[in-house]
Amino acid sequence: MLDRIHPWGKALRAQTAQRITAELATEPWQIAGYFGLRSEIFAAEQGLFENSDVDEQDAHATPIVAQGEIAGMPDGVVGVVRIYRAGSDEPSDTWFGGRLGVAHAYRRVGAVGSALITEAVSTAHAWGCRRFLATVQEANARYFEHHHFYRLETLDLLGRPHVLMQANLERYPAHLSSAWRARAS
Question: How many domains does one find in the chain?
Fold first, then answer.
């Protein structure tokens, strides 16, 4: 049935950006978007945390954002992930990736998660990573397997099944983030 609010019979889907880029979050609007999207996904949507998913790892983690671009200009943060060197109980060349999330409107685009994973693993690899691990919700483990991660063990975290996975670093060449490359030239 047609109405004044939805004259085409159903709500129109929001326009998504035509180009997706991933880079280290360095600008204030990127950092705000990074924490805002994380809170939206992990606290509000999934209910894994009460109000905020910020933890002790954020004090030394490097935030990475995926941005949608329209007409060559950033349109906003559409995906997030963080990377950090393992603590004192792990070798210094072990890194972790975590809190990967994609804005709801971009979940079927496919390029957002791929861009974030590639940027995260390749950047850590360039910074000396020799072992890259990620704790992934079981429902997303197959997606990571398609991105050259393999399962190490199953875990129960926050009342949900997770999988500890390791990236095949041979599939991720070491390079500095696109944000750092732009500043170096």
Answer: 1
